[in-house]
Every structure is written in structure tokens, then in C-alpha cells.
Amino acid sequence: MIHSFTTYFTRNIFFLFLLVTFHEVALGQQCPNAPSGDDGGRFSINNHPEIIKSDGDGALNVNNIPSNFCRGEQITLEDLVTGGGSRSFEITQNATVLSTSNAIPVPSNTNSITTTLPTTPGIYFIKSFGSSGGSGYYACKVIQIVDFEKPKYTVKLCDEPGTTTMKKVTITLLDVPSNKLFDSYTYSITPFGASPRSFNVSTSTYPREITQTINSSILGFDFVIEGKSQYGKCSESDQKRLTTVSTPIVPIIFNVVIDNGISLNVAATAGIEHKIWMRDPISESTYNTTGTPVYTYTPTASLVGEIQKFSVPDPTKQYCFKVNAFDICNAKTVESTNEICTTPLRGDTKQGGNTIIWSVAQGNLLGNTFRSYDVFKVDASGTESLVKTITSIGSNLYDDTDVICGEEYTYKVVTNYQSKSISNLLKLKNTSVPPTPLGKLVSTVIGGQSIRVTSLEKEGNDLPTFTAFNYYRANSINGNYTKVHSGTSAFWDDTSVNPSAQQYCFYMTWTGGCGESQPSSKICPIFAQMQGSSLIWSPESSFTDPIIEYKIFRVNPSTGLPINTSGSGLPYTSTKNSLNLTNLNIPEAEGQTIYLAIEGSTGNIPTTLSNYIEYQRPSLALSAQAFTPNGDGLNDTFYIQGRFIKATKMSIFDRWGNLISFIENTNYQSNPQLGWDGTSSNGNKVPAGSYVFQIQVEDLSGNIITKEGSIVVVY
To answer: What pLDDT is stored for residue 23 in this prediction?
Structure first.
């Protein structure tokens, strides 16, 4: 911008260079000076009565004291030089008197402009340029653009002693940097439902206490305080609703909980600041209330327990607490009449269970007397179960042996005084407890050829940290056990056995994160065998429970299905371990060979089966003691009598051992009465007397039966 101020530059350019260089280095935030005679500028900011004169040197050095403005604040600048022309203003951080292209011209028909300040905080210069009577003039003011904050203060409303209506408001402006940016404050105190009462105050010293007396019977007031700068138009304010401060009641501590910090339940007076004090009972017998409280708060309701949550240096240590309130109107402390200490809980796992330990209760607490400890288990849903109550103050340990390997347990201890101290929740997972044995097992023969062993009580997913079931077998009732299989299924078919040849016994274990369990009870599938004409079977149980009843029935060995024969006496129910099969009445037409199986029962499902027993009924090869081969048609032939016979051979010897006759019947079923007719091999009748015979019988099952004896020939 070009105006008569240019003559200033041409006359003093060298001096100006030295001047600007000096001030940029040495003076920093001071307005640059103009040569004598050219500093006659005058302007105002926001119509403020204080006029900015000249360039700020000499007696006007006050120009260099920054005045505070808000970021982006809109201000009005007015050039006050009478008869001035070519007026302009410049707002810059450049410490030079040169008017640049950034200058803001003032319209010719006025002497003021409205402009917006920069938004970046810092030191700036407001410079006024103009000309009058052929000479230029200049003035400057240092400003600071800042971020104002709400005023920082405390305020209280108290009844004046001895009156019922007079109240005293005490405001304390705090000694903080943000307050020192304001040049003055305005505050108003408005009784509820009445007109505001406003007051102004200027201050340069902090902290600053301001008191105001109000004559009103109303208990509540709206309070507004506003901080202002000298020239700026922007301001920051804060407001509160004041009620007359009551004399605080004695705080009462209800309980304390360790819960991600400390939760203290206290009944106190609303609206009054309270301080929670802490001590270490190991090293401190009293509270240091001249230091810093562990927590400061203001209750929102009177005489109602409110939870105050705060942190402590080490939650695993025991701390004690009391609460104080300060009666700000009467300047005295009101202390709680009880104190309480935390109950930190720790623990560990060991072989056979979990051990929990807690801090011993303090026996000399103010307003609290020890009564008992309650030990709780907490399940996954949060339900608590009381497992033990301890009344001895020094007994601070509990061993829990009722645990399962790999399962997580949660514990809590409550120290009962008149108030309660509740511990932290402690979670323990024990992996050193031997897994419990499996419960109910059953074994049974499958199809007469293999043995199935099954756990009835637990499946793999019911067992903590389960990895496998283990199957052990002994090849006799008193034999040594060997692991024969391991897998995740709760049953296993042993196909390497011969259930009809010998007895076997089994037990099971399971393996998890805690190792292998103890063995289950031993079980032995029913082993049945023939002994003469009797069926006998093992007395050992196929279950972990005793068998109370046996049932013997015929079975089809190919299908495993029972065969029902009416009137045979099967199935036969018994509580004994043997059955004489001759007592049965199975028709001869059913065949010589039948198969039997035994079912054992505990009275509940399932039942268990034995091996298949092959029972070959005897052919009963019989012969007469004497016969009369005289041709009368009666008892003329000596032949073999029986059932289930396929073929026979008969040899007859005289008294000297000579073979005198041999008779062979290859189809006994067609000619059962083929035998010796009393003749010798030459066809002659033998004399009366005693003869020796030897009989060989092949039954339908292929068995060979040999008999020897004597037969008497009578005529």
C-alpha cells in the first residue's frame, strides 16, 4: 500500500535497517519503534476507552504488555487521528513497521474496520498506519492470542452465624496459569426464582478470595462466573447451583471390597467433599491426615451408602481405611467413627487339593470388632456356597480337598466385623489331583466271540482335560493286568480273546491333564462251561455292582437270537452259579447239540451275557444183560439201545477171548435193532453161557463211545 508514510522510508532507510535488526534480536516481542515525529498514531480496540498511542517506547512501553484475545475473535479497530487519511491496519507476527500487502485498508468514508484475528495462538502486533498534513503516522500494540479455559475456582454458601436469612458466599480464584490470562471477572448470584445479582472484580494476584453477603431466606442459588480480557470480546464462564452447606454427619463405612481396585461403601453427607485416608497396618498405627488422601470425592446423596472406587499401590497387601469430611463453614474436620481393613486373598494348588490364605483381620479397629471369617466357593454363574465359617481370628487358611483335576474353582473370603471386608475373587485350577476312578462299568460277551467293556458313568467330554480311556485285561481271575487298548471311546470290543476257552477280567482308567486315574473296580464277563451234565459259571460280577440274578436260555449261535422250546424249562432263572441240565426237558427232536447262554442282571439295564456253551446231550448207548436167541420172537437179539446214534460196531468174544461174531450197523437210524442173534461166524448157535462184548457207538455229533461188558445167552 502506498501513502505519504513512504517519505519516512526514504529519509531513514539505513537507520530503519539497524533499528529492525536490533529489535528482532534483542527485543523480540516489543513493538518496533518509528523515528521521532512519526509515531503520532492513535487507535482503539473494540471501542475500549483506553487509547493505543504511538509505537510503545518510552513512557508508552505499556503497549508492549500483551493483551489477551481469543483465537479467531472478531474485533473492531478505530483510527483516532483527526484529519487522518490513507488509513490501514496490519495484524502480523512480523516485528517491522513496514506496511505490506497484508495491510487492511480503512474505507475513506470511515475511520474503523472490523476484522478477524488469527486462529493460531501466539504473539502478534496490531499496527496502525496513516498520513496527516503530508506526514505519516504509526502506532502499535502487542497482543497475545490464547486458548482461554473456564475460570478455576471454589465456591461455598454458608449461613451467617446468628441469623436465619443472611448467607455468605465465598469464592476463591485459584492460582493457576489459565486464570492469569483473564484481566477481570464478573459473577452473579441469583436466588432460585429471583433476579440475578451481578458483581465485577479485577485482580492480578492469585489466589484471590472474594466474599459476598446476601440477605435471602431462599436456600438455593444459581452461581455464574465469567472471566474476561481487557480488550477482547470473547470470554469463558462456568456455573453451579449452590445450596447452603450443611454440617456433615459422621461418615459410616458399611463394607470394603477388593474388586479391580478398592470399592468402599460409605454413608455420608451429600454435596460435601470427603477424603478417604489409608494406612498400612503393618507399619502404621495411625493415619497421616496431613498428607495426601488416597481418594477425594463428593457424595451425591445423604445417609445412603454409595460405592467409592479407587486404586491402591499393591492390592495384594492389606490396607485400612477411614473417611473424613470437612465442615467448610465451621472449618473443622468430621471423622468417621469406624475404620475397616481389606482382606487380600491368595492361594495355590497342591497334591490333593487347593489351599487359600488371607490376611489376618485386625483386632483393634476403630468401631469394628472381629467376629468370623466366611469361606465361599463361587460357581460359574456367580452363585456362592458357604463352605466353612471360622471364628478364630488367627486361623486364616483353608484346605479344599473337594476338587476335581483340571476344573477351575473360584474362592472368596468375607471378614465379618460389624461391617464386612470382602476379599478379591481367587481362581485356582488344580492339575496335581489324581483323577478320580471311573464309576459304573460293564463287560459282556458279544456274539460268543469277543468281549465288550463299557464305562456307564462317564463319557470322555464329562471328564476335565480328558484325553483317553485305557483298558486293562488279565487272562485269569487272579492274573496280572496289562494295558490292551487306549482310545477316546467309552467302550471297546476285545476281539483277541476266546471267551469260551477261559475266563478274563478287566478294569478301566482315564487319562487327562492330571495324568492317569486310579483303576476302576475289576469286572469279569461271565465264563460258563460244562462239568459232566452240569452247567457251571463264574461267580465274579460282570458289573461294578453285584449280579443278583442269572437267566439261562437257548441261543442260535449263528444269529445270537434266543430259541424258545415250549416245556423245556428254558429260559431258566437262578441265583446260583450252576444248573444240572438233566433236569431240563428238551425234546429229542431238538437234536443232540444245543447252545446255551447266561444273562446276568443287577436289576437294572443293561444286562450282560456269557460265552456260548455247546451242550451235547448223551446218546445213552444201552444194552440188555441177557437174551434168549431161541427163535420164539421174544428177546431173540442182543442190540444197542439209545438216541442220537448214527452207527454202531459190535464184537462178541467167548470165554477164551476168541472173536466169534462181528456186527456193524452203518445206518442206525434206519435199523436200530440190528444186533447179535446168538450165532457164531459159521452160522451155528452158540452154547448157553456168558460171552464178552465190545461196543463202539458213533453219535450224531461224531462222538465215538466205546463200551465193554458181558451178556448171558439163555435157551
So the answer is: 32
Q: What pLDDT, on a 0 to 100 scale, did the predictor assign at position 461? A: 62
Q: List the one residue out of 597, 499, 495, 608 whose CA is nearest residue 543.
A: 608
Between 345 and 136, the more confident residue is: 345
| Calpha distance 435→493 (Å, rounded) | 24
- The per-residue DSSP string of 335-382 comes to E-S--EE---EEEEEETTEEEEEEPPPPSS-TT----EEEEEEE-TTS
Where residue 597 falls among pLDDT bands split at 50, 70, 90? very high
Beta partners for 413? Answer: 375
Q: Are 173 and 343 in contact (CB under 8 A)?
A: no
Q: Given phi > 0 = left and psi -120 to 50 = alpha, else beta, which region is 494?
A: beta
State how far the Cα of 23 lies from the Cα of 43, in Å rounded to an integer. 23
Global pTM? 0.48
Three-state DSSP class for residue 701: coil
For the chain, what's the residue count?
A: 715
- 45/77 Cα distance (integer angstroms): 5
Q: Tens digit of pLDDT for each residue in 280-333?
A: 999 999 999 999 999 999 998 888 899 999 999 999 999 999 999 988 887 788
Inter-residue contact 552 to 611 (CB < 8 Å):
no
- Measure the CA–CA gap between 291 and 311, rounded to whole angstroms: 17
Whole-Å CA distances, 161 to 218, 244, 330, 650: 16, 13, 10, 145
Q: Rounded to whole angstroms, how far apart are CA atoms 501 and 633?
A: 51
